[in-house]
Amino acid sequence: MGQVAFAGVSKWFGVRVDGRMQGVQALKDISFTVENGQIVALIGPSGCGKTTALRIAMGLESASAGRVLVNGREVRGCGHDRGIVFQHAELLPWLTAEQNVMFGLEMKGMRGDTLRDTARRYLDLVGLADSAGRRPHQLSGGMKQRVGIARALAIDPEVLLMDEPFGALDSQTRETLHGELLDIHAGTGKTILLVTHDLDEAVLLADKIIVLRAGALQQTINVNLDRTGLDLAEMRTQPEFAQVRLRVWHALHGTPTGH
Amino acid sequence: MSSSSETAQITPIAQPMLPADLVKPRMTLPRWTITALSVVVFFALWEILGRDVNPVFGSYPSAIFLAFIDIVRDGTLLPAFLESCKSFFLGYVLAIVIGVPLGLVIGRFRFAEAALGIFVTAGYAMPLVALVPLLVLWFGLGVAVKVAVVFLMSVFPVTINTWIGVASVPKSLLEVGRSFVAPGHVIMRRIIFPATLPYIMAGVRLAVGKAVVAMIIAEFFTALSGLGAIIINSANNFDTATMFVPVVLLMVMATGLTGLIGMIERRVAPWQSELSGRDSA
Lengths: 259, 281
Ligand SMILES: Nc1ncnc2c1ncn2[C@@H]1O[C@H](COP(=O)(O)OP(=O)(O)OP(=O)(O)O)[C@@H](O)[C@H]1O
Ligand SMILES: [Mg+2]
Description:
The complex is a heterodimer. Chain A is α/β, with parallel strands linked by helices.
């Protein structure tokens, strides 16, 4: 129900530097597939093109070359089949947390009691039931981020695109939400493309890790971590965790893995 | 959206364990006391210094107040005031009703900006005084011409401010609308308009002063009527104190209106003052 395929995607940006236009290539011929129900992590250093890739998949940006297919259909603009969690939450400042979640739902045509109930349910899910009536400036950075997650989850998209959703959180809350995300994923089988620069996060959550460096796909690493019935601490003790973590580390640093 | 969130913000004060410094922030003077003091000092100085001036060349508060009582008693002030208010409010409200949507459209659509923006920019600098005689030819000498002058003076600050407001809505907020597949009119109504509201209110405030000036100009140039007539007539009689009555009255009225607009702004856009951390402006 939700497959995402990047097919030879490149992206150039025109930047004006000292009055002269320069071309910047943010993505270089990227191809990979997120299979239905998979969690795929996009990892790489700052500025390597992670956000750009996600925005193209969302339809907020168009590819300069190549295309992104969602369920075999080429992405041309935004759709309810995809939900995005922005890197900086991007809540509407004049709406309360609850109204922010409701905004997405209303755009899907939901009205009346179901609207409020659904919004409450997802705020509850991210642990913000008590802050439903607060406006964004009355929330901490991490709380804002969680409202953003609730807003994207609430519209029940087939594909969830998440841009460093846990970046602004403390490690404890992050662990909790990692657990939540795995639960949600187990419960709904959603396809998730997750941008991160956190090695552990990528290995713990993803079935496949795409390592980007300077806009190019450096390596694709499959993760065969056994997650059934285990909590995050137990997952870390598996030999597979350490091995994959090391491979991703080498890929990130451009050093040979020895495998 | 306001009533439920309003109560949500008030409830914490009812909680018993709230620290005292949240209820009563600091031991500083409230803003209005400073303002009141400053006004008192101003009028006191004016009273003291004004008394030494030849009453033709100047006046002072107590004399102005006596003149005020006089023209209230003989029944000239109230009808003149109402007469002026009529053209003022008609023109001012019309400027908002037309200026805000116009600014939204110019700010939102590239075509409208390219086609109409230049007229709005030029219109703001229009030397309206020079055009009043022409407007009299078009609209006659009645209320219509005064409304037209007030409208033309106040519509441009409203439009320009709204336009600037729309242009400065962060792209990221528009993308929230796009990513949830909001149609254009919903993005306009639920994202652009609320994001622009503080700019609109600033324009609406600036327009008060413009509209007052416009109203008096219109009354000077057309059939003498309203407060403008009182000013001209008393100036011709060298009755400077009476001349000051409408002048002071108008300034008081404009200040009150501006304060009222500020209150409305805090009601319709409460997040703004909370964001900037200012209690009033
Ligand atoms: N709108 C834009 N105009 C010009 N250049 C851009 C634009 N957006 C991104 N870039 C450039 O493209 C490259 C990739 O940016 P991107 O935001 O995708 O990085 P990122 O991997 O998400 O980084 P971070 O981890 O810091 O968020 C950067 O070099 C950036 O400067
Ligand atoms: Mg990014």
